[in-house]
């Protein structure tokens, strides 16, 4: 049975990461660069790479979850939560970038195609 929380989280102990902190994390940066390279190739060469872009974002999700679980200790959940949250930041960030770039490319190409008709 889970007992009461030994530490309470206060506003002072909580410091959310800024967008630039998340972006400049080395793992996130690698995924974002790869996603934007594929997006640029998709636009310039007119090769449909949108599914690969989403796949790279999903791969980042699994990598982030994997990273978060590496130092998880079920015997010390309170001290393990921070490590899981760091991994989840990578997980969600890479998925959002991948899906966002893919959706943006789709909209751009659809609108561009409609304006050329």
Folded structure, characterized:
With 117 residues, this protein is an all-alpha fold. The chain has one domain. It has 4 helices and no strands. Helix 2 runs parallel beside helix 4. The longest helix is centred in the last third of the chain and has 40 residues, at 77-116. It is elongated and about 60 Å long. The N and C termini lie far apart (65 Å). The model is unreliable at 8-14 (pLDDT under 50).
| Distance separating the two termini | 65 Å
* Bulk shape: elongated
The percent range for helix content is over 70%
On the 0 to 100 scale, the average pLDDT is 85
Weakly predicted, low-confidence segments: 8-14
Tally of strands: 0
What's this model, at a glance?
The protein has helices spanning 19-23, 26-45, 50-70, 77-116. The protein is elongated. It contains four helices and no strands.
Topology:
Layout: H1 19-23, H2 26-45, H3 50-70, H4 77-116
Helix pairs in contact: 2-3, 2-4, 3-4
């Amino acid at each position: 049975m889970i007992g009461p929380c030994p530490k309470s989280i206060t506003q002072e102990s909580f410091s959310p990461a800024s967008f630039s902190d998340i972006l400049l994390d080395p793992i996130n940066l690698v995924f974002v660069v790869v996603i934007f390279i594929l997006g640029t190739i998709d636009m310039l060469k007119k090769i449909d790479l949108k599914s690969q872009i989403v796949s790279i974002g999903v791969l980042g999700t699994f990598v982030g979850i994997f990273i978060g679980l590496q130092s998880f200790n079920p015997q010390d959940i309170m001290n393990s939560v921070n490590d899981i949250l760091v991994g989840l930041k990578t997980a969600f960030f890479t998925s959002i970038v991948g899906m966002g770039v893919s959706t943006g490319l789709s909209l751009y190409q659809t609108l561009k195609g409609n304006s050329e008709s």
